[in-house]
Amino acid sequence: MTEEKVILVNENDEPIGLMNKLEAHEKAVLHRAFSVFILNDKNEVMLQQRAHQKYHSPLLWTNTCCSHQREGETNIQAGTRRLYEEMGFSAELKELFHFIYKAPFDNGLTEHELDHVMIGYYNEAPKINPEEVENWKWMSIEAIKEDMQIHPEIYTVWFKIIFDEFYHYLEEHKL
């Protein structure tokens, strides 16, 4: 299997090339990514706990799913694909906003992403892929915010950054 490539972008989200995912994380090169937040009708977020065998951030809690777009794939297509691969269900996704962040991993690699944040709605239990996901749970937005302050070590580095942006977006747009 060939290693997955990420789409390198400039600060305007214009593609400037492709690079192997691991190399992009070693060199902290800006690349396109996405983060999906699935909410239920109680306004709770579906969180996933990363699988124990993941090469970085194993067993840490994060948003419903996140990954990288493939060449020729729209943001929504990528989010829909990865949501099904990791969580075993499909939901209609809507892109909310995008922003750039840089965050170190626990193993010396660095995320430097132009992240497209999407939202979708679903009320059932997922059919998690055990190679990607260890566990899952619903949590209210306020409970996540409080728990991150009390137990920041159980959440992925990028989720803490992305959740803050998501939280402020929801406040401003009254979603």
UniProtKB/TrEMBL annotation:
Enzyme class label: isomerase
Keyword tRNA processing included in the entry's annotation: no
Domain of life: Bacteria
GO cellular component: cytoplasm
PROSITE patterns per the UniProt record, alphabetical: NUDIX
GO MF terms, alphabetically ordered: isopentenyl-diphosphate delta-isomerase activity; metal ion binding
Name of the protein: Isopentenyl-diphosphate delta-isomerase
Organism: Flavobacterium lacus
The organism's taxonomic lineage, starting at the top: Bacteria, Pseudomonadati, Bacteroidota, Flavobacteriia, Flavobacteriales
